[in-house]
Design goal:
Layout (H helix, E strand, L loop, with lengths): L4 H4 L5 E5 L8 H12 L3 E7 L6 E5 L2 E6 L28 H28 L5 H37 L6 H14 L4 H4 L3 H15 L3 E5 H17 L5 E6 L15 H12 L5 E4 L2 H11 L14 H14 L23 E4 L13 E4 L44
Parallel strand pairs: 1-2, 1-5, 2-4, 5-6, 6-7
Antiparallel strand pairs: 3-4, 8-9
Helix pairs in contact: 3-4, 7-8, 8-9
């Protein structure tokens, strides 16, 4: 692949970027990697492979590598044990219940086809009455046995589901366990509460050490710990490595990605432990930068890199384009920005023509993130009255109160 003038000269140093996804759908990560590579840096972007095969490709001049990441620590030890006292008939964990249920369905499907074939042969007169009665009796007996086996498998699978439901870390005992380790170990408690974070270290850490970067750019909260530990190991070898933490989310305000009570406290403790190791903090908005400054007691406001174009920049670009094309001066110009709107980002969909001043007839969909951190799953029904569309321009709703009490809120 050829290089242009910006990349043909000597390299400025090596940057290793870390991200917890397949890179393909993350436009923010891709743009930062390409920009750094075009500015003269030797950029290697490490992501997570969807399978056990390492993948490589080029993103402009930057190299992208997806590393396989086994995650055996993501499951706790008790998830492999059976509950002999409360549910003695439950299948042992590991997939045997799903295998047996599928086998029963396959057996019943086979008996249905055999019954249809027997009926077809009977209509064609290929079987005498005595042989037809014996075959029909045999099929009815096998169907009865299949139904009984199906009920037995259903019973044992139901017991296994009850065991799994009781092991989601939501009962008083699990909350007491979480509180105990938080009191005893403080921010180090994530090692007990979410040991699966070590899987990222074991997959990414050796490759970072081999690349010997000058700067590590860690995207989001899981990669923060991986980058900080690599920086600490490099300092132990006498090398100085700068760490940039790119915070995509405000962790205390998101919906947990796993259905148990330990996920959020563990990840918050993990973030608090390694946030002080960051030499610079980069985030997506000015408000999120202020929230991070308060959460981690950062010494001063850090710069942020906005993923969508800023409004002032978009307006000036629109005016320049209209001046360059006088014949289209009366044509409305619509500025569009596409991104993933997910519930854990508190992303609320709105449909409003007033949000697009250059195109009064525009019916495009826009999304806004409430600054108060209200989850879109708690909002009333589908997009419509009651949705916090006014939070896009609200400058006072920064105290964590509900959007419903925000004086600057407007309904869609």
């Amino acid at each position: 692949m050829g290089q242009d003038e910006t990349t043909a000269g000597p390299r400025r140093g090596r940057i290793v970027m870390l991200v917890d996804n397949r890179v393909e759908g993350d436009s923010r990560v891709q743009k930062i990697a390409r920009s750094a590579a075009e500015a003269g840096w030797d950029v290697t972007l490490l992501g997570r492979s969807p399978d056990e095969v390492e993948r490589r490709w080029q993103l402009g001049v930057a190299e992208v590598r997806l590393l396989p990441m086994p995650n055996p620590l993501d499951r706790r030890r008790h998830e492999f044990r059976r509950s002999w006292l409360r549910w003695p008939l439950a299948y042992r964990p590991g997939g045997i219940a799903e295998h047996r249920a599928q086998w029963v369905r396959a057996r019943q499907a086979d008996l249905t086809v055999r019954a249809a074939l027997l009926e077809q042969r009977a209509r064609a007169g290929e079987l005498d009455p005595g042989r037809l009665r014996r075959a029909s009796r045999g099929l009815r007996l096998r169907a009865t046995v299949a139904r009984l086996v199906g009920r037995w498998v259903w019973l044992r699978t139901k017991m296994l589901n009850r065991v799994r439901s009781g092991r989601k870390f939501r009962n008083p005992w699990d909350r007491a366990y979480t509180l105990f380790w938080q009191v005893v170990q403080g921010d180090r408690a994530w090692r007990r509460l979410e040991p699966g974070l070590w899987d990222y270290e074991l997959a990414y850490g050796p490759e970072i050490d081999r690349l010997r970067p000058d700067l590590i750019h860690a995207h989001d909260f899981r990669m923060l710990g991986v980058g900080a530990r690599a920086k600490i190991r490099a300092a132990g070898q006498g090398r100085r490595v700068a760490l940039v933490w790119d915070a995509h989310e405000f962790l205390p305000g998101i919906k947990p990605w796993r259905d148990h009570a330990r996920w959020l406290p563990a990840h918050r403790a993990h973030e608090r432990e390694y946030a002080p190791h960051a030499d610079a903090v980069l985030t997506v908005s000015d408000d999120l930068a202020e929230l991070l400054r308060r959460e981690h007691r950062l010494p001063r406001r850090r710069p942020y890199c906005s993923t969508p174009p800023r409004r002032s920049t978009a307006r000036s670009t629109t005016r320049r384009r209209r001046r360059s094309a006088p014949s289209a001066a009366s044509t409305p110009t619509c500025r569009c920005w596409s991104t993933a709107a997910r519930p854990h980002r508190s992303a609320a969909w709105t449909r409003s023509s007033t949000l697009c001043p250059d195109c009064p007839g525009c019916t495009s969909r826009w999304w806004s993130t409430p600054r108060c951190g209200t989850s879109s799953s708690s909002l009333p029904g589908p997009p419509g009255p009651g949705w916090p569309t006014g939070c896009t321009s609200c400058r006072t709703c920064r105290t964590g109160r509900s959007c419903r009490s925000c004086p600057a809120r407007t309904s869609g």
